[in-house]
Amino acid sequence: MMGDIGMSISAYRNSCLAILLIAALAYRPLHILKLRILAGLEKYDTADLERIVDICGSFPTLLESKIYPIHQSAKEYLVSKAAVSRIFSSGTHAIYRGIAKRSVVAMTKALRRDIYELVHLGTLIHEVMGRQPEPNPLKWNTPVHTGSTTYVKQTGAIFIVIGVPG
Q: Out of the domains of life, which is the source (predicted)?
């Protein structure tokens, strides 16, 4: 299966490989729109992304707009040194750095001062319940690893991520 993808001359080859690795390295299932940001595939619409996931074969599965690695052994294979070195010679650290960079870039584009239009600093939560902007500017721009120090431990990266659990 990986050999077929690796040898493919399809226009979607690199996109499929990026999706496989992001899905395998993520610590939880990702919504397809969040995956689009993290894999650097903003040029594709949702239908294109669904086709690319289908091209990826039996490793990932799309269920209710979320990407799941099909089973733990496939995930373990995809993140193994042998598989990563064959697919991306730069290794998993480079992939994690790419995820972090694209997360920060996406959030930088979405964030602005007073994003929820609270106006006053002392606004209480019960005063703004139900006043979330539509569309929610943070919906697909929240960090993948919110609340997790695993990423930092694995990569040695230290940075502050602003966001809400997604």
A: Eukaryota
Query: What does pTM read for this prediction?
Result: 0.65
Hey, which residues does 68 pair with through a beta bridge? 61
Per-chain mean pLDDT for the chain: 74
Q: How far is it, in rounded angstroms, from Cα 128 to Cα 140? A: 21
Q: What are 132-153's pLDDT values in tens digits?
A: 777 776 666 555 444 444 444 4
Alpha-carbon span 96 to 25, nearest angstrom: 8
